[in-house]
Records
---
Amino acid sequence: MRFDIITIFPNIFNSYFGESILKRAQAKKLINIQTHDLRHFTTDKHRKVDDSPYGGGPGMVLKVEPIYNAVKSIKRQVTRKERTRVILFSTRGRTFDAKTAKRLSKYERLILICGRYEGVDERVAEHIADEEISTGDFVLSGGEIPAMVVVEAVSRFIPGVLGKYESLEDIKGSYPVYTKPEVFYPTTSRKRPRTASPRGEQVTRSRKRWAVPKVLLSGDHKKIEEWRNG
């Protein structure tokens, strides 16, 4: 599966996509993530991607022309067999969830448009994007973080990306998990007089005791399953 991300800050993605699960998925050629600098699709010598809004108001608006050129250029590479979806990140979009991620994983190519500044020319939503997506009831400076969210959430539904398919929460469910040690004693510290210790601090064991639920240590898989299901 291929993700094409249109942004004015392509370097933002380097660290996140270069680590952990997404790095391995790219190395295995299960996914292909490409970023596209919106400025490369401008037609003026200043490479201007935004302008003031018609009707007045604060801030700047991303122009329709470079976004249109970017999407058109990417679509030229799409084969007839590739199912493609163009997504615009917007506070007015449908809230992103696991069901949406699973639906989007059925496509061969996702083109993700990251807005910035005061917003994106509405003609992008009306004529270029297939749908608008919001990652929640809050406002960010741009669509780059939502793009990271969508890429990871969608990728997890692609066979082979996760070590085990059962790791998907809609398969295994969501429940509290624990690991060693069986009992953890949080420590407390208090200041010592300067003459007492060069470290100036004394660490003592707390009376608190944080233990793993006994049912998880029982070996009774039926009881464990009942506990996890609440």
---
Amino acid sequence: MNWAGKMPEQSHISSNRPLVSVVVPVYNGERFLHAAMRSIFEQDYSPLEVIVVNDGSTDNTAAVVESISNVTHVSLQHCGVSAARNAGLRQAHGDFISFLDADDLWTPQKISLQITYLQDNPHVDCVIGHCRYFKEPGVQIPEWLPPKYFEDICVAYNLGALLARRIVFEKAGMFDPRLWSGEDMDWFMRLPDSGISMVTLPDVLLVRRFHDRNMTYQVRNNRSHLIHIAKASVNRKRENK
């Protein structure tokens, strides 16, 4: 299911150094955007195509984006993170696609480790890795969240830890614009239904920021989206029998 329409033609850069398109959706992210962008530009891999999608921010996000050179800036009316990701994908020309939320960070070798693995294993469609969390100063940890959440690393079923071949989005589709949260879970659950192969690397590739406005903090308010995602997965499995 292709929610966003046709993606542009891919790049023709040498297969030894393929272009990676990085989509950064942001909504009212002026506090953290510079740090996220720095973690992209400090990658030990190039070439990168960076596409920042401003989802109708009402703070100073637009000015922050405009102050950063070598990025493609896409502006939308506020329509949710799924639509923002799709808008970025429509602009992407890379042979490989990755994402980073504006409040998270990449480790410096994130892209190079993943590119190396995918080039060495052409039968694998996409890779993720591990992540660690850190708490923004002054933010209280909710009672339902175990303290070890910030002490251990964990497998990152998160788009910020993903590197995917372009064909993955042709097979599995893009993001459901009806989902304003949980769109990553919905998309990951579609992968096996679409015959997509995914491998988890042992490396920490993503550093996730925990603050009082991100989706993790508000997870208990997202049950309706989770129910929709679960029902959609069950229906796909029935259709594929």
